[in-house]
Amino acid sequence: DAKTTQPPSMDCAEGRAANLPCNHSTISGNEYVYWYRQIHSQGPQYIIHGLKNNETNEMASLIITEDRKSSTLILPHATLRDTAVYYCIVRVAGFGNEKLTFGTGTRLTIIP
Amino acid sequence: GAGVSQSPSNKVTEKGKDVELRCDPISGHTALYWYRQSLGQGLEFLIYFQGNSAPDKSGLPSDRFSAERTGGSVSTLTIQRTQQEDSAVYLCASSLVSGWGTPLSSGNTIYFGEGSWLTVV
């Protein structure tokens, strides 16, 4: 019973920005939004996380709406190696050990 | 090591045999998780360890599955009397633990290993 909704698949042209949406309308005030990706069946790779402010790191940007009911992961210049399944996950801020509950994610395909 | 290490990376076993999968978490990480992913399916939580607390076994699919964590570090997932439906990649992950409600930092991120591919024939 994942608490997020994502489109099952998306395409993006190589070199363009990939914008992956996620709905989390039932998110609680103490829940963070996390993004992971999984290439083939390798172990999931952490991308970014945030609470309510927009976040940016070397991999991506995370835009969270003011009401926190949705967010967008932005890969600014997509490459072929960004082809993967992207998971949006909400995680409560407890002790920092709360497990992740994965949904079905978005399969992003980067088109040459 | 720098990341979560799992062994073996691949294992083929005959139906009915027992298998053990090993996980070495990132040094200093007190929380350890096991997940599995069947072909074409999502990630399924199995079990979670945190320090000396009783493990959260709520995701184990049957009593054929068990796991232990010795000395708060290395963990072993054991599957007894393997069945063909046990074929999957078994993923281990670890994280640091901080105080209740403190802002989740990158230090609390859950990091995954590359998994152990299990094929039951």
Write the layout of secondary structure elements.
The complex is a heterodimer of chains A (112) and B (121).
Chain A: E1 9-13, E2 18-23, E3 31-38, E4 45-50, E5 55-56, E6 61-64, E7 70-75, E8 84-92, E9 106-111
Parallel strand pairs in A: 1-9
Antiparallel strand pairs in A: 2-7, 3-4, 3-8, 5-6, 6-7, 8-9
Chain B: E1 5-7, E2 10-13, E3 19-24, E4 31-37, E5 44-50, E6 65-69, E7 75-79, E8 88-95, E9 111-112, E10 116-120
Parallel strand pairs in B: 2-10
Antiparallel strand pairs in B: 1-3, 3-7, 4-5, 4-8, 6-7, 8-9, 8-10
Instruction: Count all strands of chain B and give the number.
Output: 10
The secondary-structure element order of chain B is EEEEEEEEEE
The helix content of chain A, as a percent range, equals: under 10%
Output the structural class of chain B: mainly beta
Average the pLDDT over all residues of chain B and give the rounded result: 90
CA-based shape of chain A: globular
Helix content of chain B: under 10%
The biggest sheet of chain B amounts to: 6 strands, mixed
Rg of chain A: 13 Å
Largest interface: A-B, 23 and 38 residues
User: Helix tally of chain B?
Assistant: 0
